[in-house]
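Hey team,

Filing this mostly as a record. A colleague (T.K.) asked me to run one chain through the structure pipeline before their review meeting, and I want the input and output archived in the tracker in case anyone asks later how it was produced. No errors, nothing strange. Just documentation.

Input sequence:
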Amino acid sequence: MLRENNRHFKFDWITIILFLLIVAFGYLNILSASHSSEIINYFDISEPYGKQLVFILLTFVIIILLLGIDAKFYERFSSVIFIVSMVSLVGLFLFGKNVNGATSWYAIGGMTLQPSEFAKAATALAVAKYISDLNTDINRLKDQLRIFAIIVTPALLVLLQNDTGSTIVYGAFFFVLYREGLPKYYLIIGISMLIIAIGALKLGPIITSIFAGVLIIAYRLKNKKKITILQSIFLIILSVGLSFGIKFFYEYVLKPHQQDRISLWLRLEKDPVKLEQMKKTFAYNLNESEKAIGSGGFTGKGFMEGTRTTGKFVPEQHTDYIFSTVGEEWGFLGCTLVVILFVLLLLRILHLAELQKSQFSRIYGYGVASIIFIHFFINIGMVMGLIPTIGIPLPMFSYGGSGLWAFTILIFIFIKLDSNRINEW
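Output structure:
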């Protein structure tokens, strides 16, 4: 009887400990970046650090609920969860609250919830459910289109709410599909489209189209058995259409501030006066963030001793730019620790995913790892100036209840699914 009871408490504690370490270290940096006086009241909900502590305490309630639900529930009701999540996204167009230009929030009393964060877990469940179905063949075009529809639906709804950052995250599911056997030519197409898009903006659509056409013709001449003349013509037309389409999208669809961020990243602006103005307007956060990280040196200035952090030089430092606090106060060692914690968490989830006996659990595990990786990669890259500024928080680390709870749900559903494997005798 004792053995029967104990088996229900067997979970992968390595993943849980890594999760808790990231949350705890994140809170310390939120506290440092958001406190406004020497006297700190940890439960002062008028301060971000006070709210975050409440969010963390509620996280433990969510964890208990998630681990208490039967693992089969998540697979059985994944479609229902996905539909409810999509309804919550549609409801934002009627009842949503606009925050920083994005209508992505529900205002509930004095609290706000961002359903796009929770939609990621719902989409991961739906993708896992559909691919693991016995009648699904990922190499069949019909099933590929249906899987893409599952992923694109929430992405489009989020994009229409002017939340570009959250939209990009749905590209993470490409890694999941690739692991499950999606044909390699999709990878080639994806990389080619990215190169053409950058080329069209940097070199112009005409030069990019000519360059792409020459490469396609050269490939055709060398590999006549792999590609027909009609396929070559189609690829050339597609490349030309994409080149001019990207240029049109950049100039007439994107908003000025989005254009300027891409222009700064690709160094598209030729006018030195306008370029300097753009840097002052749109690169301020990045410049201050780089200064804060650089000033930390190897060991950092010490907890709550960062002059740029306490001086509030970096806007949004407790949210999207939280990594700059780590760099200033904990130095290179602290930054390395954060990266190691995330890498270990990702590797652990991928390791557990490969151990799963259920295809549904394996696919979902890869979905969890992919979403965390995209958030981690983009946020760190953004703060260090490697990619354009995109409003994506550092998972479990940045301030915010919706983000913390959504990643808690994402991770602990997988821990519960994995517990079935651990508890088998």
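Quick notes for T.K.: The two ends are 14 Å apart (CA to CA). The first helix runs from residue 2 to 6.
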